[in-house]
Design brief:
Number of strands: 5
Strand content: 15-25%
Number of helices: 3
Shape: globular
Oligomer: single chain
Helix content: 10-25%
Distance between the termini: 19 Å
Structural class: alpha+beta
């Protein structure tokens, strides 16, 4: 993931059930000056917040898009306690309806740590 114009705060969250870092997150500023990029391993959640009036992001994926494999977790879930730069974010309808991390975990929708590690073991 990179920001090709403007600036964003990019947040990556470990959502792998059984991971020693489960629920931990990291944030990095991506912009069109430094041109940094972020790699998102299997089993990690991702979100971003525009820091400029407009921002354009680009990303590559490892496989064809499969909507049934994609799930959301509410960006303001207190269990994650992500330090977003604003609490008045403009969220999509999908993101506003997103369940908490506890709800996603209870539904069995989180990827397993060992399964995710096995996918990238030989890469």
């Amino acid at each position: 993931m990179t920001c090709v114009s403007g600036a964003v705060l990019d947040v990556v969250v470990d959502l792998r059930a059984g991971s020693p870092d489960f629920g931990r997150w990291e944030a990095v500023r991506l912009d069109d000056v430094e041109r940094a990029a972020v790699y998102l391993p299997e089993g990690f959640g991702h979100g971003f917040c525009a820091l400029s009036e407009t921002a354009t992001v680009g990303y590559l994926v490892s496989r064809r898009y499969e909507p049934e494999r994609e799930h959301t977790v509410h960006v303001h879930d207190p269990e994650l306690a992500i330090a977003w730069p604003t609490r008045t974010a403009l969220l999509s309808a999908r993101d506003r309806r997103a369940p908490s991390l506890a709800e996603v975990r209870a539904r069995g929708l989180l990827p397993e740590y060992d399964d995710c590690r096995a996918l990238t073991k030989d890469r």
